[in-house]
Amino acid sequence: MDSVRSPEWPVAPLGGLAANSASARYGQPVGGPPTAPPHPSPPPAYRPAAATAVPAPDTRTGPAAAPPIPVKLLIAGGFGVGKTTTVGAISEIAPLTTEAEMTSAGIGVDDPGTRSTKTTTTVAMDFGCVTIDRSLKLYLFGTPGQDRFGFMWDDLARGALGALVVVDSSRLDDCYPAIDFFERAGLPFVVGVNTFDGRLTHELGAIRWALAIGDHVPLVQFDARDRLSVRDALLVVLDRALDRAVREKGV
């Protein structure tokens, strides 16, 4: 029987090595002892992985900014002098108000003045806030103006650093209770005369004399409808409160 070979295998000469022998393919002599495979190199010694380094904080941006210091201020005064308007003019949030419709039951009791067009009245308080800068934020609490709500003033004044007493120059009698309250409480306050219709009924000097307030009490003129005007008046209150705190700390 004729032998069969693969066509890819070359023809070996007589007496020579077969082309498909182990010697031809692996370089081993025919009939010789098998070559031992090379001894594998030992694995490297175990070494624990190095701890992941924690990146150092970026000092270029500086420490995290601290939240602003909260400061409580009161907006006080008689009935219908512009306290709610003052809070609403400067508050950076929608102010919280507790307004109720004025009814005929208040005739002869609540007198907003002849120049007022008020149809509502504050029955609890007003609340708003404004950020002065990154370090200071003012929280404004407006007090009710009627005498029957006077019992709330002690609670609203707790924790306050100062007050702005809003005055209508045509109705000075209505602001006496507020001035007396803060003088007895020993709370720093500023008298702000609201310019209804852009004018004053009396000059500031005459108003100071009529209110019998000393020169140590700031007396300013402002417009409760104007944001910048309200801001300037509140900065005077803040300056007086800080001056009081510095003097008490130095004692």
UniProtKB/TrEMBL annotation:
Residues 31-46 have a biased composition (Pro residues). The keyword Transit peptide does not apply. Residues 47-57 have a biased composition (Low complexity). Gene3D superfamilies: P-loop containing nucleotide triphosphate hydrolases (3.40.50.300). Residues 1-63 are annotated as: Disordered. Signal peptide: none annotated. InterPro entries: Gliding_Motility_GTPase, Gpn, P-loop_NTPase. Pfam families: ATP_bind_1. The keyword tRNA processing does not apply. Keywords: GTP-binding, Hydrolase, Nucleotide-binding. Belongs to the GPN-loop GTPase family. This is ATP/GTP-binding protein. It comes from Micromonospora antibiotica.
